[in-house]
Amino acid sequence: MTFLLALFLAAQMAPPCTAATLSGTFAVVPGSAGAGNIVYALRLKNTSAASCTVTGIPGVTLLDRGGRRLPTHPYPAHPGALTAVLVTLAPGKTAQATARFSPDVPGPGEPVSGRRCEPVAYTLLVRPNGGGALHAPIRPPTSVCEHGGMTWSVLTQH
């Protein structure tokens, strides 16, 4: 019986989402700004005709207006405390992860007055677990201080 159950579950499991099957946005969470921090939500939508899966924290890189890479250092919000869940996205469905960071409090070695702590990021390059990379516009564009330091939640169904 367990062999049949394993066979059934394997048949039901969708493949990992690739960048070609997703669209994304990275936008401020209204009302989240305070004490030198802000929260942005990454939303990944399955734009394909088939279900696929996402899990954990995707690979991310901040890009400037010209598409050049900016300092980016993603960290888990609760290292070692959570297990990433496998999120199955049916066509048209969305997963979300959030990132908390400082847009205006400089870290060590960053300018403390007269200029932004880091250049403004306009796009988040996202590498989902299935491979490839997609561009998620950042709304509104922002600096990410502490050399691009961000604490991330894991992806969950949205």
Summarize the structure in words.
This protein has 158 residues and is mainly β. Helix content is 9%, strand content 40%. The chain is built from two helices and eleven strands. The strands form two sheets. Strands 1, 2, 4, 5, 7, 8, 9, 10 and 11 form a nine-stranded mixed β-sheet that branches. A two-stranded antiparallel ribbon has the order 3-6. A hairpin with a 6-residue loop joins strand 8 and strand 9.
Task: Give a topology summary.
Blueprint: H1 2-12, E1 22-28, E2 38-46, E3 52-55, E4 59-63, E5 73-76, E6 86-89, E7 94-101, E8 121-127, E9 134-142, H2 145-148, E10 149-152, E11 156-157
Give a count of the beta strands, DSSP E runs of length 2 or more. Answer: 11
Shape: elongated
Rg is 17 Å
Largest sheet composition = 9 strands, mixed
Sketch the topology as an H/E string, one letter per element: HEEEEEEEEEHEE
Strand content: 35-45%
Q: Termini, distance in Å?
A: 34 Å
Mean pLDDT rating = 90
Could you name the ranges where pLDDT drops below 50 across 5 or more consecutive residues?
A: 4-8
Residue share in helix: under 10%
Tags for this model:
158 residues; mainly beta; 2 helices
Brief summary of the model shown:
The protein is mainly beta. Helices cover 9% and strands 40% of the residues. About 3% of the residues have low confidence.
